[in-house]
Structures are given as structure tokens and as C-alpha cells.
Design goal:
By secondary structure, the protein is mostly helical. It is built from eleven helices and no strands. The radius of gyration is 32 Å and the shape is globular.
Length: 229
């Protein structure tokens, strides 16, 4: 074998060794990169930061609400709900359901249609930030009946105690069950009637309960709830 042939074979061997080394190095780099990928994925899939309501934005949005709910959501017309001190989760949920058509009211559906999800949360937080109002029962003749329904339900009709969901003092539970303490009795009674008739159909539980109650029972418990502290 000539010197030239030997030299050529050595060069080929060196070249092959280099190729193998480069390939191994590339594989190692890929492995290191893949080790970092789970961390990257976790960062990309991290839960979003908690929503932070802007009360100033909520107040600006509420300017449209003042005609019916007054400037701070306090004691306006009895036919309209008091929003002051209501759970923000519940208010935002109702606005979303007006917008989606799950709850019917021409005025509220028109207003909610203009709001984004964040807008709803901002304005809900604004009203919730206000001190909940105190109301009074007006009808002494029905206080006993109202208290009985609130605290013990109507056993013969299968109506559960209102306090089970709306709490003994009427403070309610966020998102699902509104604060009823201090609420206009006329408004609460109207909502019970609407649930019973199917006009309001965004809570199956309340539709069933209200459907078992008489008008007198609705008015009695609504008046009693208005005076709760």
C-alpha cells in the first residue's frame, strides 16, 4: 500500500471519528434542551393572575345604572333591587346571565350587552364595596309568618327554610345566593313570583321552591327579610 493510500485512509478514519463526536454532542445538547422544556411548559401554562377589580372603573360604568339604582346602589325605587353591599360574585353572575339571555329583563339585557366580563366584575365590585343598607319589616301582621318561613320553611308544602341558603341573618352566600337582608320587600316578592311563574328561570331550585308558595307567603317572608340584620 502506498504512502498516499495510507494517508487517505487515516484522514477518512479521523473524519468519521469527528462526525461521531459531533453527533454525540448534538444529541447531548438536544437532551439538555428537552430537560428544560417542562419548566418552560409550566411557565407557559401557569394560572393567570387573580382578577383585581378597579373600583374607579366600576364607578364610571355605574353612571348608566343611576337612573334605576341611584348613584351608589342604595335605596332607590322598591321595584328595583338594592345593589349596595351585594356579593360581587352574585352581581357579576346576574349581569352575565342577562347578557346570555338566561335571565330576562329588556332594560338589563340591553345594558349587560354592552359590558365585557371585566366590566361586569368592576361594576359589581363597586356596588359591593358600599356598606350594606339596613331595612325594616313594614307589616306587623305578617312578621310571625315570615319568620316561620325564613327559619323553618313550610313543612306541609316541602318548602325549605330560606335561612339554609341565604343564612340566618340574610347575608346570603357569594355567587349563588344573594344578600336579602335589607332588600326591598316589593322586589324580593316580585322575584319569587317571577320564579313561580317561569318569568325568571335562571335558578331551578328557586323555581321549584317559589312554585309551592302562595302570594301571601311570598310577601310575608319578603317583608321579614327586609328587616333582617
Amino acid at each position: 500500500m502506498t504512502l498516499t493510500a495510507i494517508t487517505l485512509r487515516r484522514r477518512r478514519a479521523v473524519s468519521k471519528t469527528l462526525q461521531l463526536a459531533i453527533g454525540a454532542l448534538g444529541a447531548a445538547c438536544v437532551g439538555l434542551m428537552s430537560l428544560g422544556m417542562p419548566g418552560t411548559a409550566r411557565a407557559a401554562n401557569a394560572p393567570p393572575a387573580p382578577f383585581k377589580a378597579d373600583l374607579a372603573k366600576g364607578q364610571a360604568i355605574s353612571a348608566t345604572c343611576q337612573a334605576c339604582h341611584t348613584a351608589d346602589g342604595s335605596r332607590g325605587a322598591p321595584a328595583n333591587p338594592i345593589l349596595q353591599g351585594q356579593h360581587p360574585e352574585y352581581l357579576a353572575k346576574q349581569l352575565a346571565e342577562f347578557k346570555a339571555g338566561k335571565r330576562k329583563n329588556a332594560i338589563m339585557q340591553g345594558f349587560a350587552a354592552t359590558l365585557s366580563e371585566d366590566d361586569m366584575k368592576h361594576v359589581a365590585a363597586f356596588y359591593a364595596s358600599k356598606k350594606a343598607p339596613q331595612g325594616f319589616a313594614q307589616n306587623k301582621a305578617t312578621v310571625a309568618l315570615g319568620e316561620q318561613i325564613w327559619r323553618g320553611g313550610i313543612v306541609a308544602k316541602g318548602v325549605p327554610a330560606c335561612s339554609g341558603c341565604h343564612s340566618p341573618n340574610g347575608a346570603g352566600m357569594p355567587a349563588q345566593y344573594p344578600r336579602l337582608a335589607g332588600q326591598h320587600a316589593d322586589y324580593t316578592a316580585l322575584q319569587l313570583a317571577n320564579f313561580a311563574s317561569g318569568v325568571r328561570a335562571n335558578n331551578a331550585q328557586m323555581t321549584t321552591i317559589a312554585g309551592k308558595m302562595s302570594e301571601a307567603e311570598m310577601k310575608a317572608v319578603s317583608d321579614y327579610a327586609a328587616g333582617l340584620r
